[in-house]
Specification:
single chain; 5-stranded mixed beta sheet
């Protein structure tokens, strides 16, 4: 797994590559927590290059969303591929999280 973190106008954008599973979810959680601890309250998780999402990955997304919403912020997820979209739909996460087709849409939704 690779994670690239960028900040664009106060929005932390995470480009995640690889499998988001039990072994790698702790890495994503640490990165999200670091952004939140740095005062970030607007996060985007770009899933364009995520090839697998497990329940452990979903738990990290849910926990981070709860933290952010508690601080007046939010987590936006974007560019889900077909496999990840199916996981989100079956698990109901498409209804819990804010999911966008593009990173630009996710960014603009914070305005």
């Amino acid at each position: 797994m690779e994670i690239e973190r960028n900040n664009d106008a106060g929005i932390d954008i995470f480009h995640i590559k690889g499998s988001f599973d039990t072994n790698t979810s702790i890495i994503v959680e640490e990165q999200f927590n670091a952004a939140i601890d740095d005062g970030g309250n607007k996060l985007i998780a770009n899933f364009e290059h995520v090839d697998y999402v497990s329940s452990a990955g979903l738990r990290v997304l849910l926990a981070s969303t709860k933290k952010l919403r508690g601080n007046g912020g939010d987590l936006h997820v974007c560019t889900l591929n077909q496999v990840a979209q199916e996981v989100f739909d079956i698990s109901g996460f498409s209804m819990i999280l804010k999911v966008f087709s593009t990173e630009e849409e996710a960014r603009n939704a914070f305005s």
